[in-house]
Design goal:
Length: about 800
């Protein structure tokens, strides 16, 4: 070979060598500077410094109780919560480094040795099992800026993967320059998926082990580190054997190999069994499900627009409009702007919502509801309806009415909506509802897998009685417990803030309050125990509420206190006749009842349909010495960084005098001591001062009880989904049987927990009683009347 040929060969070699080197340099320069934005589908996009400083990541919003317990989260697809590096246990970090990137603390984002190993073994030797070359930082880059290979051919997918791999190298180097090693590890643990819709170590710790990351032991930490490589393949729930093998043979082995654990520790650790406390943090499970759903609806409510309401929904539109204008939390997400001008998104902005709910009281309330409804009342209802052709409906309901109820239930169902959208005609829909299918249905003993027709499932669900409970601190308005119904997964309707049911005799204390005001009557005032009638306009027959009394009291003079204790319709009718329905309605509105109350005489016996939350708020006025405090559910909202965005305070107004309020408390104590609620002390042994009132509506359709102690007011409603679903017996269907036991079971639990400091003291007596006598003991002696009136009828009409 001549010298000229040698020079040409050398020149050609260097050209051939330089071209790919220059190409690679230019390629990486263009990738790093974002000069490849011309590529389709945003493939060439490179995040700038600002985005690297604040990488986008969907963060679940969290709901906290007043005692700082996590009640639940709001998220769409990614359940993720941020955790700081100092809250990560050392053995968790060691497990990750040993397993995924042993030279993590030595490289600057790309591990050259691992890269060379992958190139040599995978590409040259074809050993696909040699392991990946991605560092922890590169994996973080992939988590922060995911690859998009959807809707591409096999060749296109490989090209995209190769190019995005180059991008991840560049991003990894940039991350190393902008963050410390500890910050990168924290970011990695906050972004990595663990399966079960769980993202980040904090969510994973709670989901799989029911604890925070700093409480993970070494076995738990190693298990979670093993999961991140392939969340489905190594899922401890779906594939427990794979998960254990990965933990022992890879994670623990690597930790032993690199000196993070000793041989003895390794031998002990691999023998540990898999112990999970698996609870998916779902919107439909956990504590306070109805409360969390109500909170979500309120926070994300849109501004009411008249055109979105039907022509017959003016009152609902007016109510929602008033809420939007007057209630600061109503529509908060849409009313509040972020620094960039966008409104807050409840599902991915990571806001923290601090509520008034006490987690222990919430658990006690749910336990009490379950114990009474599932352990006693529902089995009793089943037994009473067994063999009845019209069950679960009352025998008075006609077949035509029952058919209409089932038809309305069918057309309101989700199945019906889906079939309609699929263009099924009416005949096909009916056929579908009459075709047996596999389904999972609710039972108090646990869900049941069965086969039945959708129409039979509608009838099956109609058999279940429903309940609602709200417990409030009257001095602050803080709602401490909120139970919307018996099971949120199967029964979504909220009986605390949405349902309006006839209140029955629980409305009577509001009627009596008119008489107890200064210048009015004493609880000891006597009236004849006779029917009371109201004249009606246009020559209509007089309205006379059903007379309710024991024979021993018929025709006698009785005190107003005795009338409330025995829940006598004629006594509340007498009081209303001294005043007017308009005055009673005005008082009820001032006490927080916003539901529509018709201006009719039957309100004296509770014909109005009112929300449970409104009744609890109204009774709080009595306990809080005449001052109404609007129930409040949230105290503050913070952004993801802990900055306070909004604080909330309850609205207050004085409605009645302290003396009037105490007279009503005194009279409602009589309901418990000698009236329709004596079971509280006779059967459940609660002997402290308690004021309360039962309520039972016509034909036992609704059972109520609202009970008060000096720093807690709790209301209960129980009934069927339809008013025609009810007990045939007044004994079982009255408020003292349906609702009162839940209150006592709840209060027993509350009193056992001394840390809650729920009062068992006497109600404070004000200095001024407006000169009105409340000691009626002498009247008992003069009339020789009975001591208790527990079994008197409470029907409202």
């Amino acid at each position: 070979m001549t010298d000229i040929q040698k020079k040409r060969a050398i020149k050609t070699f260097w050209i051939l060598f330089a071209i790919p080197v220059i190409f690679v340099i230019v390629l990486f320069t263009m990738i790093a500077t974002g000069s490849m934005n011309f590529l389709p589908d945003n493939l060439g996009y490179m995040p700038d410094f600002k985005e690297l400083e604040n990488p986008k990541s969907n963060l679940a919003s969290e709901v906290f109780s007043a005692d700082q317990e996590l009640l639940g989260k709001y998220y769409f697809n990614e359940n993720r919560t941020i955790v700081e590096f100092e809250n990560l246990p050392t053995h968790l970090v060691n497990a990750l480094v040993a397993t995924e990137d042993i030279r993590y603390y030595d490289h600057a984002g790309i591990d050259g040795w691992s890269l060379m190993r992958v190139i040599f073994k995978t590409i040259i030797l074809g050993d696909s099992g040699s392991g990946g070359g991605s560092t922890i930082t590169q994996q973080l880059a992939k988590n922060l800026f995911p690859r998009d290979t959807k809707n591409r051919s096999a060749i296109g997918r490989k090209m995209v993967l190769t190019f995005t791999k180059f991008k991840e190298w560049v991003i990894a180097v940039k991350l190393e320059r902008n963050y410390t090693k500890e910050e990168i590890l924290a970011m990695y643990f906050n972004t990595v998926p663990f399966g079960s819709m769980t993202y980040g170590i904090k969510a994973a710790s709670r989901t799989f082990f029911g604890c925070n990351p700093d409480s993970l032991d070494m076995a738990q930490a190693a298990l979670l580190v093993g999961v991140v490589n392939a969340p489905t393949l190594y899922s401890p729930v779906r594939n427990p054997e794979n998960s254990i093998n990965r933990r022992n043979n890879v994670v623990f082995y690597q930790m032993k190999k690199y000196g993070y654990i000793t041989e003895q520790q390794y031998d002990s650790l691999i023998k540990l069994p898999l112990k999970l406390n698996y609870k998916v943090q779902s919107h439909t499970q956990g504590v306070g499900t109805y409360f969390r759903e109500y909170l979500k609806q309120v926070l994300t409510a849109n501004e009411p627009k008249r055109e979105n309401y039907g022509s017959n929904a003016y009152d609902l539109f007016k109510e929602d409009s008033t809420q939007w204008a007057d209630n600061e939390i109503y529509g908060w997400c849409h009313k509040t702007k972020k620094p960039n001008g966008d409104t807050y998104n409840l599902y991915n902005d990571g806001i923290k919502i601090y509520t008034t709910i006490n987690s222990r009281m919430q658990e006690y309330a749910e336990e009490a509801t379950k114990e009474h409804m599932g352990g006693y009342l529902q089995p009793l209802f089943f037994s009473q309806k067994k063999g009845k052709s019209k069950a679960p409906f009352d025998w008075k309901v006609t077949d035509k009415q029952i058919g209409k109820i089932y038809y309305m239930a069918m057309i309101r169902s989700e199945r019906y909506r889906v079939l309609r959208e699929a263009k099924y005609d009416s005949a096909a829909i009916v056929k579908n509802f009459r075709t047996p299918t596999h389904m999972r249905v609710f039972s108090w003993a646990g869900d049941i897998d069965t086969v039945m027709t959708p129409m039979d499932s509608i009838r099956y669900y109609k058999f279940f009685l429903h309940a609602g409970l709200m417990s409030m601190e009257p001095q602050t308005g803080y709602v401490r417990a909120y139970v919307g119904d018996i099971d949120y997964y199967h029964f979504k309707y909220d009986n605390v803030m949405l349902a309006r049911r006839q209140v029955g005799s629980t409305f009577k204390p509001i009627i009596y309050t008119m008489a107890m005001m200064p210048g009015g009557y004493s609880p000891c005032h006597k009236i004849p125990n006779v029917p009371v009638s109201f004249p009606m306009p246009n020559g209509e027959p007089e309205y006379t509420p059903r007379f309710s009394s024991s024979e021993r009291l018929n025709g006698k003079m009785i005190t107003l206190q005795q009338g409330l204790a025995a829940s006598l319709n004629q006594v509340s009718a007498w009081i209303l006749k001294q005043y007017s329905p308009a005055i009673a309605i005005d008082l009820a509105k001032k006490m927080g009842i916003k539901s529509y109350i018709p201006e009719v005489y039957s309100i004296c016996v509770g014909a109005a349909e009112v929300k449970l939350s409104e009744m609890v708020g109204a009774y709080g006025t009595f306990v809080n010495q005449g001052v109404y405090v609007e129930p409040i559910f949230v105290t503050r909202i913070e952004d993801k960084n802990g900055n306070i965005l909004k604080t909330f305070k309850p609205k207050k107004r004085e409605v009645i005098s302290e003396g009037t309020a105490y007279r009503m408390i005194h009279m409602m104590k009589g309901v418990v001591e000698m009236g329709t609620s004596t079971r509280i002390w006779r059967e459940y042994k609660l002997t402290n001062e308690i004021a309360g009132k039962t309520g039972t509506t016509n034909d036992n359709s609704d059972g109520w009880f609202i009970g008060c102690v000096p720093n807690l007011v709790t209301g209960i409603w129980v009934g069927g989904e339809e008013r025609s679903i009810r007990f045939g017996s007044g004994y079982y269907g009255q408020g003292s049987s349906m609702a009162l036991p839940i209150w006592t079971l709840y209060m027993q639990r509350v009193y056992r927990d001394k840390t809650l400091e729920i009062s068992q003291d006497r109600f404070p007596r004000p200095e001024s009683m407006d000169g009105i006598e409340i000691d009626c003991s002498k009247y008992k002696e003069e009339d020789n009347t009975i001591e208790t009136y527990e079994n008197l009828e409470e029907d409202i009409y």
